[in-house]
Each structure stands twice: as C-alpha cells, then as structure tokens.
Amino acid sequence: MRLNIQMLISHGRVARKMGLGPKSQINMLRNILTGLVRHERIETTRGRADEVRFYAEKEKDLIPKLFKVLAPRFETQPKAYTRMARIPNRENLDKAAMAVLEYKGNPFPPLQTAKRDNELTLINQLLKGYREQRAQQAAAKVEA
Amino acid sequence: MACRTVCQLLQRRMASSATSVRLSAAEVRGQRSAVFSREQARQRSLYPRTEKIEVTLQIPGLQGTLLVMNKGVSTPHSCARHLTEWYVTSSALALVDGKPWSLHQPLTQSCSLSLLTFKDTDPLLVNQAYWRSCAALLGQVLQDAFKEDFSVELLRVPEVQVTSGAFCCDVVLDPQLDAWIPSEESLRSLTRGAQQLIHRDLPWEPLEVAPPVALEVFSHSRCKQEEVEEKSAQSPKGTVMLYRCGDHVLLSGGPLAARTGLCSQYEVTAIHPLGEGKWGLHRRAQGLSLPLLQQAHHTVWRKLRSRAEKLVEVPTASANEAISDTLTPPSAPEQTPPHTAQQ
Q1: Could you say which protein family the record assigns here (chain B) (predicted)?
Q2: d(Cα A56, Cα A83) in Å, to the nearest integer?
Q3: Are A123 and B294 inside 8 Å of each other by CB?
C-alpha cells in the first residue's frame, strides 16, 4: 500500500501490535501465558500484561496437569481470575511501563490494594444511612 | 416612635401582630453583635501582659512538638498557622487535653493539642461539629432571607445524627406566613444565600459568657432567653457558649467547625411544617452539605439529596443525650439486617 501520513495516525484503532507481526504476537502471548500458569505471578510490560489477561481467562486447556489446581480454585469466582498492578518503569534504557500479573488466590503475599476511605467519614456515614433506609423500604415492600 | 419605646418596655413577644413597633431585624443583629464585641474585648483585656504557655502537639508525624504561644490570645488556628497551610485549611476542630475545642477559641493554659480533620480514623466528633455548623448556617440564612415585615424566630437546633441524612433547624415564621408553602424557587434562593455565606469564608468565633450577658444579647427574643437558661443550667461551669458568624450571634449545643469555607456542596432541601407549638407554627428546615475535602459525585449527591427532602424525625429523648455525648451510636433502629450495597 501507499506509504502515507494516515498510516502513522491511529485514531480510534484499539487493537495492539506486539513483536514483529501477528504470528510473533501470538507466540509471545503464549510464552507469557505459560510463564503465568507456571509461576502464578509474573512481571512484564503493561501492554503485554493487559493482553494476556484476556487470554488467561479463556485458554484453560493449556496445561491440564496444572489446571487440576487452578480450575477448582476459580469454580466459585464469578468474574475475573487475574489481577494486574502497575509498578515503576523498567530500569533499562527503554524505561518501559511495567506491570505485575497474577492469578487470584496465589500463595504469595498480597500486592498493594487500593485504599478505601474510612467507614466513619461523613460521606460514608451518609451513604450508610441511605443504604439502611433503602433496605428498610425494600423489606417493608416485601412484607406488603 | 413613642409607641415603639412603650412596646419595648412592655416586652411584647415576636408573635404580636403590630409589625411596625419591633426593632428591625438589622438593628437587632447590630445590637447583638455590639454586645458580643464588647464582651470579647472585655475578655481580651483580662490578659494585659503577654504571658506564655506551652502547647504540645499530638499530630501524627509531629508528636511532641512544643509550641510557645500567648495566653488568652493564641487559638488552635494560630498554632496551625505555625505549621503548614495544609493544617490551616484541613483542620475543622481541635482537641485540647482530650476535650473538643473550637479552632478560634483562645487557649488559657499549657495543654496538649491535636487538630482533627475529616479524614481521620475517627472523625465522629468532626462530623457532628460539621453537622451543627451547617444547621447554624441554615438558621443564619433563614434569618436574613425574609423581608423586614416578617419576623423569623429561630428555635433550638435539634441534635441530629449524621446517618439520618439531613441537618435540621427549627424555625417559627411570622403568623402572616402560616399558609406559605416553600416552592422550588424559594429553596433555591435560600441555597444561593447559603453559598454566598460560604464564599465569604467567615469564621465562627466562639465566646464563653456568663448567663446575664447572654440574656442581654438575646433581649429581644423570649425563646432564646429560655434556651440560654436551659443551657446554663446544664453546663458544669454555668457559662454559655455563643458563636458569631459575620454579624449573627447564635447559640449552639456543642463546638462548631472553624469557618464557613469548609463546606463546599450545600443545599437547602426542604421546609416541613411540624404543627402548632409553643411559639406558633413550628417548621423544620432541612439541608444537606458536604465538606470541601469530601465532595460527592453528582449521581451520589442526587441520591443523598432526595433522601434529605424527607422529614427527619428527632426523638426528644435522644436529643437530650446527644447534647452531652456526641459519640452515641446512630439513633435509627435497624429492624432488618443491612443488605449489601445497592448502589
């Protein structure tokens, strides 16, 4: 195709491009996914971690032996099996944005979770009263 | 003019029909403010020489810092100004030797000080003080809102828990307004008046006075005088705490927050008639507010506001308890176990 300016502009294109091409991308994702299933917590660049999350929740016939462990663990969980947390940029020259990807329920100590506001703050107390009132109204409707 | 002095001598109640013989609202305010300033100046003149006191800070990160302040002049606000601007803007209440202390009240002896904000691990005292301050602001707005012909009488501010959803201010309007039902427009104009006060960022100046001075301040209002007598009977030292904001002087059941500028989202949600009472038709004005450091998203605000429009019931028994002890659990009885969050 013609080499034009439109090739450099990517407005609205959401699909990521990794590695040397589509085949390279799939191979790279497969390797990362194998590493995740083996170690249950890995550190990669942010874009790769985000892509692998999607596959980690679908490709369950990868290593059947290990899935005697993972499948029973995630039977009860409704939605997401993985957790991604951002970490500081890589020390190399490329300063890539890194992330840690892990399966939930892994045996390692927990990563940092988002701090929630104290239950006793003003807005949380107001919301608590609101929830209680809604619960009372719902209960009254059920009785009636 | 002669008629007016005769009526003042006879001390006719506000509910009288002769509207022209009372002092106008502005004059009443001016007179109260003048008495307040006089008493404030007198209390300051009790410390002619500058004596030093030592204030130990109990703030996380600054434990044990010693500040040397002036006796009778320095307030927790001035202590915060010695630290950083963050402490000045974020602190709403102070704890002096474990007792709640208004930020602009002068310190009289060496003590330990901690500054409370809205995001502490235990903000119950701050929340109650903020709720009380918003109710006081509502009372001030109501007093200013009506025309000179109509009298507005503020009754006691009921102590309401934060979980009930709205702060209230009981008020008795002129008998001519008995049939008035507030419309959306009038509530919005009251809100605008409150927002103007918030924008002016006025501090609530506290003053501890003896009952005779308080009775003189409220000499034109019989129900306020009764409230003064009740409060002085309940307090251990026999004194009454007055607060001034701008040129309004008001009574309060406990310490108020530091300044009006601490509130950011403020709306007057409803005015419900409570029925005939001792002074006329009692009405309960309700509002909802959130501080500057804890603003809500507009979806959350809308849900809380629709809840604040409903009448808040104040059981009289818990009102008496809540005056002395602000750490009681919420008064709303939980008949059903709370469900998981339904938002």
Answers
A1: Belongs to the mitochondrion-specific ribosomal protein mL39 family.
A2: 11
A3: yes
Q: Which residues of B touch A122 (CB under 8 A)?
A: 118, 123, 126-127, 130, 162, 290-291, 294
Question: What phi and psi values does residue B305 have, to the nearest 5 degrees?
Answer: -70, -40
Helix (H) / strand (E) element for B114: namely: strand B111-116
pLDDT digits (tens, 9 = 90+) for B147-191: 877 878 888 888 888 888 888 888 888 888 878 888 899 999 999
ipTM comes to 0.73
Q: How far apart are CA B326 and CA B130, in angstroms?
A: 12
Provide the number of CB pairs (under 8 Å) joining chain A to chain B: 76
A123 has a chain B CB within 8 A of its CB:
yes
Q: Is B153 helix (H, G, I), strand (E, B) or coil?
A: strand
Q: Quick check: A137 contacting B, CB < 8 Å?
A: no
Q: How far apart are CA B39 and CA B214, in angstroms?
A: 10
Query: Given this model, what pLDDT does residue B16 score?
Result: 45
The residue of chain A with its CA nearest to that of B336 is A136
Cross-strand pairs, A86: A99
Phi-psi region of B35 (alpha: psi -120 to 50; beta: other; left: phi over 0): alpha
Distance CA B87, CA B82 (A): 9
3-state secondary structure of A118: coil
Residue B292 and residue B22: Cα distance in Å, rounded?
A: 40
Separation CA B343–CA B338 (nearest Å): 13
Q: How far is B255 from chain A (nearest CA, A)?
A: 17
Could you tell me which chain A residue has the CA closest to the CA of B126? A122
